[in-house]
Amino acid sequence: MPETSATTPYAAALLRIAQGVMFLAHGAVLKLGTFGLAGTMGYFASIGYPAALGAVVIAAEILGGLALIAGFATRWVSLALVPLMLGAMLQHTGNGWLFNVPGGGWEYPAFWTVTLLVQAGLGAGAWALDGVRTAARRPAIA
């Protein structure tokens, strides 16, 4: 078994890319493709939030998903997405723990919150623009 330090960058990359794909799918396919911008904004208004927040969440999920896939500003993007998951969790708290109940439970967004915090702690890992930017800033060794 390889040392943990040898596999950590790849594990962080796997987590980052999986999160990015899920956020991209959730924002682009579910919210825009299934419900549309007007439908999503209407839903947000129906649960007591400003309708425009629906558009902000769509943009955050799509742009955040793309940034995570690319490994761009991974720590900051992960932390920026935490409030979205906390908002989703709060929206589902009255439904109970499991997401299979009507209206969905709060365990799924709670788990997402934890994974985003873990990603922020781990950083981008392998195959990330973060690593390219960091390498470009390092002084050359003579």
TrEMBL record:
Pfam families per record: DoxX
Keywords: Cell membrane, Membrane, Transmembrane, Transmembrane helix
Topology term for the membrane: Multi-pass membrane protein
Residue ranges of the TM segments: 21-45, 51-72, 79-98, 110-129
Highest taxon listed in the record's lineage: Bacteria
Location in or out of the cell: Cell membrane
Primary localization class, coarse: membrane
Family (UniProt): Belongs to the DoxX family.
Protein name: DoxX family protein
Naturally occurring in which organism (per UniProt): Belnapia arida
